[in-house]
């Protein structure tokens, strides 16, 4: 009696072919994949002018015209963060009546790795 898992011809069903190639050790390598889909992933880009901390009481006292003093000096580079990770520094520019940032320094991959720890 034929095994119910056999194909009608009696041969086992064939598997789909694999387009990978064997390397020098005989291990199969995956074919190169198109990763263009990652180009459409949205990222959060933040330009940080400076930071401060304040008491809740001081926060409640703020009103129109109040000035909040930040930890950076005027003229210091702004920090450009992508998904909360520092990737560059720059300076404020005006483009078509809107603020922009001119990149003046790109953080190296080594510096980015160091900042993770």
UniProtKB/TrEMBL annotation:
The keyword rRNA processing does not apply. It is a peripheral membrane protein. Residues 38-107 form the Flagellar motor switch protein FliN-like C-terminal domain. It holds the Pfam family FliMN_C. Keywords: Cell membrane, Cell projection, Chemotaxis, Cilium, Flagellar rotation, Flagellum, Membrane. InterPro entries: FliN, FliN-like_C, FliN/MopA/SpaO, FliN_T3SS_HrcQb, SpoA-like_sf. GO terms for biological process: bacterial-type flagellum-dependent cell motility; chemotaxis. One of its GO terms (molecular function) is cytoskeletal motor activity. Residues 1-28 are annotated as: Disordered. SUPFAM superfamilies: Surface presentation of antigens (SPOA). GO terms for cellular component: bacterial-type flagellum basal body; plasma membrane. It is found in: Cell membrane. PANTHER family: FLAGELLAR MOTOR SWITCH PROTEIN FLIN, PTHR43484. Belongs to the FliN/MopA/SpaO family. NCBIfam families: fliN. This is Flagellar motor switch protein FliN. It comes from Desulfarculus baarsii (strain ATCC 33931 / DSM 2075 / LMG 7858 / VKM B-1802 / 2st14).
